[in-house]
Amino acid sequence: MAGTLKNFRSICKKIICIGRNYSEHASELGNTVPTKPMIFMKPPSAFVAPPNEIQIPSEWDELHHEVELGVIIDQQCRNVSKEQAEKSIGGYCLALDMTGRKIQDQLKKQGHPWLLAKGFDTSCPCGDFIDKNQISLSSSVNIWLSVNGKMRQNGHTRDMIFSVPDLIAYISKYITLEHGDLILTGTPAGVGAVKRGDQIEAGLNGDNNLKYAMKINVASK
Amino acid sequence: MADSLKNFRSICKKIIAVGRNYSEHASELGNTVPTKPIIFMKPTTAFVTEPNDIRIPADWDELHHEVEFGVIIDKQCQNVSKEEAEASIGGYCLALDMTERNLQNELKDQGLPWLLSKGFDTSCPCGDFIPKEKISLSSSVNLWLNVNGNRKQSGHTRDMIFSVPDLIAYISKYITLEHGDLILTGTPAGVGPVRRGDLIEAGMEGEHDLKYLMKFNVA
């Protein structure tokens, strides 16, 4: 099974994202900390990987970056408990939840769905598959992001409000998670704007010398 | 290409749904008519087909039914014009956008995403593939839905605010539409609740004796 997960971006049928899962990030956007996970989706057409570039939709000036730990599902699961959840995991990845923040603010004011702000093409820059045994959920992973060489985000997965097993259990109560699906588990504080021509670098560091980094450009016009 | 579309529900990678695309339905929910399409997604795990049941998630009491005309993409398209849009279509289907209305209203009040209220398993009861040639976009298709034998919704696709080509052009500006993708084009007035034990029947009729019917129990 794990063989096909190396190509998870090709087989993935849905990307489920969690909002406000780090309390500092909730406050920086003036939001309250949620009592239940806040979930939304990106379509698989959102994937982009280096050397391809993030494309800001032509009528927008900027996007916000959000660096996240991604969890890739191996075993299909539905209504699993927190205790069973870890068995469903096939691996991990580093990903970005690129967001049209101004659009998102307008959509929120009107009570409209978020798809336009969160689901456009290239809104999910995504790194390669990292095998399950390289990351232990009982230890913390550091995730960071810099823009044009300046550090913007630097967080630790131990600060997640809802843990990975919490998230899998919650989502799978309502939505069956399938082999190859990706869950983006939220972003730490430090989100900010990128414009055309900017370069983003992001990485994760964990136990046992785990190190993953990627660089992706924001396309010029 | 069209052969694989017979199995569109297995190859589909995304279901893009359009809100408030019939003005009477906009008013019945106290909403204004939009100036641009309102778009959201259901995951493909939402599909349910006959003879399986619509399952209301355990902690909820009821769902709202919404009967919709579905458009299935054949040719991948990105940033297409209204004029080019029809060439991307592979076929059509009848579908329902099952919705947890109370939850959706709470999410809207808080400016939160709609996924939980719109994307749960079995929130997309979906009929079979209808080939493109059976429906002309220049003619209107009648959609209807009954609950326990009582007519609840009855509408005509000519009353859509944004036409099918409008929708494809708009969506494809931001999101590439791929072979097998499904667009749900909005629902006419008459939405209402169903509870466990109810029976939904839905159908569509069009020119050249087009007739499609489907039935779902609510479990």
From TrEMBL, chain A:
A GO MF term: acetylpyruvate hydrolase activity
GO cellular component: mitochondrion
Reactions performed catalytically: oxaloacetate + H(+) = pyruvate + CO2; oxaloacetate = enol-oxaloacetate; a 3-acylpyruvate + H2O = a carboxylate + pyruvate + H(+); acetylpyruvate + H2O = acetate + pyruvate + H(+)
Keyword annotations: Metal-binding
EC number in record: 3.7.1.5, 4.1.1.112, 5.3.2.2
UniProt KW Translocase keyword: no
NCBIfam families, A to Z: PRK10691.1
Family according to the record: Belongs to the FAH family.
Protein name: Oxaloacetate tautomerase FAHD1, mitochondrial
Organism for this UniProt entry: Adineta ricciae
UniProtKB/TrEMBL annotation, chain B:
GO biological process, one term: carboxylic acid metabolic process
Name assigned to this protein: Oxaloacetate tautomerase FAHD1, mitochondrial
GO cellular component: mitochondrion
UniProt similarity note: Belongs to the FAH family.
Matching SUPFAM superfamilies: FAH (SSF56529)
Keywords, ordered alphabetically: Metal-binding
Catalytic reactions on record: oxaloacetate = enol-oxaloacetate; 3-fumarylpyruvate + H2O = fumarate + pyruvate + H(+); a 3-acylpyruvate + H2O = a carboxylate + pyruvate + H(+); oxaloacetate + H(+) = pyruvate + CO2
Fumarylacetoacetase-like C-terminal domain ranges (all copies): 14-206
EC annotation from Swiss-Prot or TrEMBL: 3.7.1.5, 4.1.1.112, 5.3.2.2
Recorded coiled-coil stretches: none
InterPro entries: Fumarylacetoacetase-like_C (IPR011234), Fumarylacetoacetase_C_sf (IPR036663)
Native species: Adineta ricciae
GO MF entry, a single one: oxaloacetate tautomerase activity
